[in-house]
From TrEMBL:
Annotated gene: recG
Domain Helicase C-terminal: 454-613
Keywords on record: ATP-binding, DNA damage, DNA recombination, DNA repair, DNA-binding, Helicase, Hydrolase, Isomerase, Nucleotide-binding
Family matches, as Gene3D superfamilies: Nucleic acid-binding proteins, P-loop containing nucleotide triphosphate hydrolases
Species per Swiss-Prot/TrEMBL record: Paenibacillus cremeus
Protein name: ATP-dependent DNA helicase RecG
Taxonomic lineage from the root: Bacteria, Bacillati, Bacillota, Bacilli, Bacillales
Domain Helicase ATP-binding, chain residue ranges per copy: 274-435
Catalytic reaction equation(s): ATP + H2O = ADP + phosphate + H(+); Couples ATP hydrolysis with the unwinding of duplex DNA by translocating in the 3'-5' direction
Cited PANTHER family: ATP-DEPENDENT DNA HELICASE HOMOLOG RECG, CHLOROPLASTIC
Coiled-coil ranges from the UniProt annotation: none
Summary of the function given for this chain in its UniProt record: Plays a critical role in recombination and DNA repair. Helps process Holliday junction intermediates to mature products by catalyzing branch migration. Has replication fork regression activity, unwinds stalled or blocked replication forks to make a HJ that can be resolved. Has a DNA unwinding activity characteristic of a DNA helicase with 3'-5' polarity.
Alphabetical list of SUPFAM superfamilies matching this protein: Nucleic acid-binding proteins, P-loop containing nucleoside triphosphate hydrolases
EC number(s) on file: 5.6.2.4
Length: 684
């Protein structure tokens, strides 16, 4: 009978009492297993160093003999500087202490001493932070000491001792989860050795070896969960096998005002295949801004409606909902397909009407914001849910639908251009389709980065484009003037532009306007009756007005790279040459890097790569909403190759029949059980 360390309370470790259990809980630790899984984020190096091998400024530990009397200089009553000569390997060095003159009594000439501190190579001087006298009490000489992230009254010393105590009591109970074949394949340490070495490494090499094992384990378990979920989902026939009318869809595509790109055709074919299968589609469609995702979604919705089901299109903003409604109506009208809008700005009466029509099946496709598939919304026969722009359709929402007896196919569209490989790994439970090319005939957007003193020329540029019949966006970071920030605000800029261009209509759009007001401005801009639109970033995602050719961004250095790329994606959508002008403070160094990336390339995937470099993966994926996993020890970027290995290993294992029967894989199956894979309510 093995003991499950995760159900053993942390108070079983001697010394964990009083307020400590509660403070450990704040770190997410309530069981012995969780304590042992709480890894240090770095190590203090107290291994003894050879002074001839040390670089200037290094933090080092050395052992020597005290070679003289300490000299103390006092500055006021508490501040002091103490100097003492030490011999280390036949070399005389000076040790310096600041404000620690009370140690003077302990520094007797001829005694052995171990010093840790920062090395000044030029002066042969060590600024001491820690001191030890060999042979007196517990020693950290020659060791690597783990450094943990801590809070409250928990100290490094306490958690180090507690961890050692826990290892003393429980090491033998740490179970192995990885099967022997994988341990052999990558020459990985057994789990209990790896855990011990992570907390108490004898050397950096050992620590690294332990880390390698745990990184693989973490990524492998994550991938196993994803791959198992996918495999189960694909083998379960609880979705709708839509009888897709392929000639009908082909006719719909032929009637479009343009020919689909090869990418669009391929992706649509993948989706149509999924729709015809009896399992639930769970597909991510990613494509750069302007790649033409909407029309692919429209064709998929068309196919589902023709097969006798309803569709839903979910978007993040009302502006986008209105826009999609307009373009779908244009496409669907000849086929008698009924659409409806369901947003927060409907009156109660309108809302009740839409809900009733949905439930009775009088509406074929509903377009709306997030509330669309929740609460009191019922469909007669929901077949497909499409989510556009940054909405990841999580398990929670899937289960809301399941509870209503619906199990629709799901298509998630995103223009946040995640490098494909990262997408596969971070969203491993989904199939990924990518639009690789932009529609033909698009001229690459010309991007310029300018300084604020060139504003007059920017105004001239706006004037010329509008005179030529085009439209322009002007983006500001703030709505109103702010005392704290010296940045442009939309209301002021709007007033300025109205003054500058009395002959044109200048619109204003920001998040504090009512949905009705916003929609009105957007409609006027779409129709070409507003020539210049001053806006905050509410315009950022999805908006499509092909006649606009100029995107001006004030204080561009205040925006992130992906956001700038999204903003730029509002232009370059039609046949005319488009421009993006970024007005940036030349003194902002980080901003400069971003401006360089923007002027270097129009390619969203390249932008994403640079963004990842500049920001790191945590920031890149943003909030938990993106659904990207957070890892305890692995790093999605630097450990990427391991992630790919782990994915292949996990996929191969899940596909083998002995995985489901053999006893060596029992710990993995138990893990999947704990993660609720088998009742299909996975993840998030
Ligand atoms: P996004 O992928 O950013 O959502 P949209 O779906 O808004 O892009 O499409 C951008 C513009 O390109 C729209 O005006 C759309 O009508 C147009 N478009 C889409 N596909 C094609 C195509 N194959 N050829 C020409 N224009 C297209
Ligand atoms: Mg879009």
């Amino acid at each position: 009978m093995t003991v499950d360390l995760y159900s053993l309370p942390v108070t079983k470790v001697s010394g964990v009492k009083g307020k400590k259990p509660e403070e450990l809980l704040a770190l997410g630790i309530s069981s012995v297993g969780e304590l042992l899984d709480y890894y240090p984020f770095r190590y203090e190096d107290y291994t003894l160093r050879d002074l001839t091998q040390v670089k200037d400024g290094d933090k080092i530990t050395v052992q020597g003999t005290i070679a003289g009397l300490p000299q103390v200089q006092m500055y006021g009553r508490t501040k002091s500087r103490m100097l003492c000569k030490i011999v280390v390997d036949n070399l005389f060095i000076s040790a310096v202490w600041f404000n620690r003159h009370f140690l003077k009594e302990k520094l007797t000439a001829g005694a052995d001493i171990v010093l840790t501190g920062k090395w000044d190579l030029k002066r042969l001087q060590l600024t001491v932070s820690e001191v030890e006298f060999p042979g007196k009490g517990a020693s950290q000489i020659g060791t690597l000491q783990p450094v943990y992230s801590i809070t409250g009254s928990i100290t490094q010393k306490w958690i180090r001792q507690t961890m050692q105590q826990a290892l003393l009591q429980f090491t033998e109970l740490i179970p192995e989860v990885l099967p022997p074949e994988l341990l052999r394949k990558y020459d990985l340490l057994p789990r209990k050795h790896a855990v011990t070495l992570l907390h108490m490494p004898g050397s950096m090499e050992q620590g690294q070896r332990a880390r390698r094992r745990m990184v693989y384990e973490e990524l492998f378990l994550f991938q196993l969960k994803m791959q198992a979920y996918r495999a189960l989902n694909h083998s379960r026939a609880d979705g709708v096998a839509h009888p897709v009318d392929l000639p009908g869809v082909r006719a719909f595509v032929r009637a479009l005002p343009f020919t689909l790109t090869e990418s669009q055709k391929n992706v649509l074919a993948e989706i149509l295949q999924d729709l015809q299968r009896p399992h639930c589609m769970n597909r991510l469609l990613q494509g750069d801004v302007g790649a033409g995702k909407t029309v692919v979604a429209a064709a998929a919705l068309f196919a589902v409606v023709k097969a006798g089901y309803q569709g839903a299109l979910m978007v993040p903003t009302e502006i986008l909902a209105e826009q999609h409604k307009r373009s779908l109506d244009r496409l669907f009208e000849p086929y008698g397909i009924q659409t409806a809008l369901l947003t927060g700005s409907l009156t109660d009466r309108q809302r009740r009407d839409v809900l009733a029509s949905l439930q009775m099946g009088m509406v074929d496709v509903v377009i709306g914001t997030h509330a669309l598939i929740q609460e009191d919304v019922f469909f007669r026969k929901l077949g497909l849910v499409v989510t556009d722009e940054q909405h990841r359709f999580g398990v929670q929402q899937r289960s809301v639908l399941r509870q209503k007896g619906m199990n629709p196919d799901i298509l998630t569209m995103t223009a946040t251009p995640i490098p494909r490989t990262l997408a596969i790994t971070a969203f491993g439970d989904m199939d990924v389709s990518t639009l690789r090319e932009l529609p033909k005939g698009r001229k690459p957007i010309k991007t310029y980065s300018v300084t604020p003193n060139m504003l007059e020329r920017v105004m001239g540029f706006i004037g010329r484009e509008v005179a030529a019949g085009r439209q322009a966006y002007v983006i500001c970071p703030l709505i109103e003037e702010s005392e704290k920030l010296d940045v442009q605000n939309a209301i002021d800029v709007h007033a300025q532009l109205q003054f500058e261009f009395p002959q044109y209509r200048v619109g204003l759009l920001h998040g504090r306007m009512t949905p009705g007001e916003k929609d009105e401005v957007m409609r006027e801009f779409s129709a070409g009756r507003v020539h210049v639109l001053v806006s905050t970033t509410v315009i950022e995602v999805g908006v499509d007005v092909p006649n606009s050719t100029l995107m001006i961004v004030y204080d561009a250095d205040r925006f992130g790279l992906s956001q700038l790329h999204q903003l730029r994606g509002r232009v370059g959508r039609g046949e005319h040459q488009s421009y993006c002008v970024l007005i940036a403070d030349p003194k902002n160094e980080v901003g400069k890097e971003r401006m360089k990336a923007m002027t270097d390339t129009n390619d969203g995937f390249e932008i994403a790569r640079r963004d990842l470099e500049l920001r790191g993966p945590g920031d890149f994926f943003g909030t938990k909403q993106s659904g990207a996993p957070e890892f305890r020890i692995a790093d999605m970027v630097t450990d990427f190759e391991v992630m790919e290995q782990a994915r292949d290993d996990a996929a191969a294992l899940v596909g083998r029949s002995d995985f489901w029967t053999e006893a060596v894989f029992m710990p993995l199956k138990q893990y999947l059980q704990r993660e609720h894979i088998f009742n299909s309510e996975l993840l998030d």
